[in-house]
């Protein structure tokens, strides 16, 4: 199952709107087939592994990271394919949250006398599929918030200088993280200040993450990196109702997808933006700032994971803070996260945190 989970994780960022599933087929203690859900969500993992196994699938055990599907979608049900291939046991940690499946895949397998074991490495599987579960159960994607800052949590000097706070190893790690998400998201301030391309470079991904900008007024440069490549790597813009019609037309003409969102105070309502991004198919979003967007997501308890890159550099109080005002007065109101990983990356340190849910 650990191998199946790692195969599944390879598909993260590539399979949306579907979950990235892994499958390993074992016969007499030998691995005879492996599969990962294909780019865009098809083929599913099981038929890939079954095709590799061929006749050896008869009497074998299939380890699948999610309940095999039971519905007739664009492909026939994986539960039926496993039954037809003569698989005698299926090990799958969790039930699928898609209403077309949820429990019926397991039921179908049991009905055909396939032994079903659930719960194996379920915590890891729940983390790996968290984006898909959030999308199907709560209608929003998972949000990973990335902060690359000085030791004192600043992302730029008072004059806006930010290149570079962290070193090349940390920046490479950022590209690897982008590749594992369906979309990279920034606020309008960051899009204006940094003119970022938000693409994955030097990693050879088959599917680039969607580039999302949250911009109430759509006051984004029409000559920058995002505008230039909008025809090739998707650009999705979450904007407010009052955005200038000429700007809407201009971005539409460049090939961007426009998502009108509700406002909350002077900003876009992050709940509405995420709801729309989820409805458009995204399961995992990598947010790279800036401080206002980071604060609005944290204030609404919409951050599931944090990734911090911390450099040995002190910028001081006049620098731009990584996270804008949260309006908190008490410590017990502050969103708290649980440490899951630390790694030294040359001169910098990476830490990963998950939302502590108590
Ligand atoms: C599996 N194995 O590898 C994946 C599954 O649109 P379709 O027909 O491709 O079905 C999408 C649904 O299939 C998706 O919502 C989820 O329930 C399941 N994904 N199931 O058996 C896989 N990716
Ligand atoms: Zn399937």
TrEMBL record:
CMP/dCMP-type deaminase domain sequence ranges: 1-109
Active site: 46
Keyword Hydrolase: yes
Pathway the protein contributes to: Cofactor biosynthesis; riboflavin biosynthesis; 5-amino-6-(D-ribitylamino)uracil from GTP: step 3/4; Cofactor biosynthesis; riboflavin biosynthesis; 5-amino-6-(D-ribitylamino)uracil from GTP: step 2/4
One GO molecular-function entry: zinc ion binding
Binding site for substrate: 162, 178, 198, 201, 288
Entry's cofactor comment: Binds 1 zinc ion.
NADP in keyword set: yes
EC id: 3.5.4.26, 1.1.1.193
Biological process according to GO: riboflavin biosynthetic process
Positions bound to Zn(2+): 44, 69, 78
InterPro entries referenced in this protein's UniProt entry, alphabetically: APOBEC/CMP_deaminase_Zn-bd (IPR016192), CMP_dCMP_dom (IPR002125), Cytidine_deaminase-like (IPR016193), DHFR-like_dom_sf (IPR024072), Eubact_RibD (IPR004794), RibD_C (IPR011549), RibDG_C (IPR002734), Riboflavin_Biosynth_HTPR (IPR050765)
Keywords for the protein's UniProt record, in alphabetical order: Hydrolase, Metal-binding, Multifunctional enzyme, NADP, Oxidoreductase, Riboflavin biosynthesis, Zinc
A matching Pfam family: dCMP_cyt_deam_1
Task of the protein: Converts 2,5-diamino-6-(ribosylamino)-4(3h)-pyrimidinone 5'-phosphate into 5-amino-6-(ribosylamino)-2,4(1h,3h)-pyrimidinedione 5'-phosphate.
Protein family (similarity comment): In the C-terminal section; belongs to the HTP reductase family.
Name of the protein: Riboflavin biosynthesis protein RibD
Lineage of the organism: Bacteria, Pseudomonadati, Pseudomonadota, Alphaproteobacteria, Rhodobacterales
């Amino acid at each position: 199952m650990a191998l199946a989970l790692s195969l599944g994780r390879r598909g993260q960022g590539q399979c949306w709107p579907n979950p990235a599933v892994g499958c390993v087929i074992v016969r007499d203690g030998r691995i005879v087939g492996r599969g990962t859900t294909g780019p865009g969500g098809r083929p599913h993992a099981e038929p890939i592994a079954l095709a590799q196994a061929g006749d050896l699938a008869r009497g074998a055990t299939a380890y699948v990271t999610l309940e095999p599907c039971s519905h007739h979608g664009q492909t026939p049900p994986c539960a039926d394919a496993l039954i037809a291939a003569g698989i005698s046991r299926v090990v799958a940690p969790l039930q699928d949250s898609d209403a077309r499946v949820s429990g019926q895949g397991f039921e179908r397998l049991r009905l055909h006398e396939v032994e079903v074991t659930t719960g194996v490495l379920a915590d890891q599987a729940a983390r790996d599929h968290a984006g898909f579960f959030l999308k199907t159960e709560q209608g929003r994607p998972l949000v990973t918030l990335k902060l690359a800052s000085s030791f004192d949590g600043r992302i730029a000097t008072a004059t806006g200088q930010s290149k570079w706070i962290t070193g090349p190893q940390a920046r490479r790690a950022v590209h690897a993280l982008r590749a594992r998400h369906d979309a990279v998201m920034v606020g309008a301030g960051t899009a204006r200040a940094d003119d970022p391309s938000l693409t994955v470079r030097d990693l050879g991904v088959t599917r680039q993450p969607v580039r999302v900008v949250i911009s109430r007024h759509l006051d984004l440069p029409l000559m920058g990196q995002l505008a230039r490549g909008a025809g090739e790597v998707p650009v999705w813009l979450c904007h407010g109702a009052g955005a200038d019609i000429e700007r809407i037309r201009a971005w539409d003409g460049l090939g961007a997808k426009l998502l009108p969102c509700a406002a909350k105070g002077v900003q876009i309502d992050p709940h509405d933006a995420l709801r729309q991004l989820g409805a458009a198919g995204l399961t995992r979003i990598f947010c790279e700032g800036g401080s206002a967007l980071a604060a609005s997501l944290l204030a609404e308890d919409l951050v599931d994971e944090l990734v911090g890159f911390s450099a040995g550099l002190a910028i001081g109080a006049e620098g731009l803070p990584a996270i804008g005002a949260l309006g908190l007065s008490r410590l017990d109101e502050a969103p708290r996260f649980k440490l899951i990983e630390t790694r030294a990356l040359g001169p910098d340190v990476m830490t990963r945190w998950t939302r502590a849910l108590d």
